[in-house]
User: What shape does this take?
Amino acid sequence: MNKELISLLSGELQKTEKAEKRLRASFEKAKLLINAKHDYTDDELEVIEGLTSRFARLSDILISKIFRLLEKIDLDDSKTVRDSIILAEKKGLINSGEKFFRIRELRNFTAHEYEEEDLFASISEIMELIPVLFDSVERIKIYSAKYI
Assistant: This one.
């Protein structure tokens, strides 16, 4: 087993824990705002924008870093993000590949969308998918324990 890859995995898991903790904090703040109203102040918009940014960050870490590292460690080969998500589902790292495909779409949309109305149309779906990310983090910790 490649010790360098295991070391990289350990570092990425630490980043994952920090990103998850920050997303959880934003998620709790945003739950109060999003359920309460639809006309937001600038301070409230910062909370929502922080949420979408942290959502994107955690999903990027999981898909682009963790899934890929585990593939290398397990000697698997995937060529696309779609392949990585399908493989992650087969390994039990995620509960639903379809939900992760949607997470990836929303991550790309929010990263490039500058119109508030369009962004807020997807915020409720992001709120529904954030627990999917949290579940995946727990699954990854369990799966990775055999290497670390």
User: Anything to note?
Assistant: The chain has one domain: 3-144. The chain has a mean pLDDT of 91. Helices lie at 3-36, 42-73, 81-91, 97-112, 116-144. The chain has five helices and no strands.
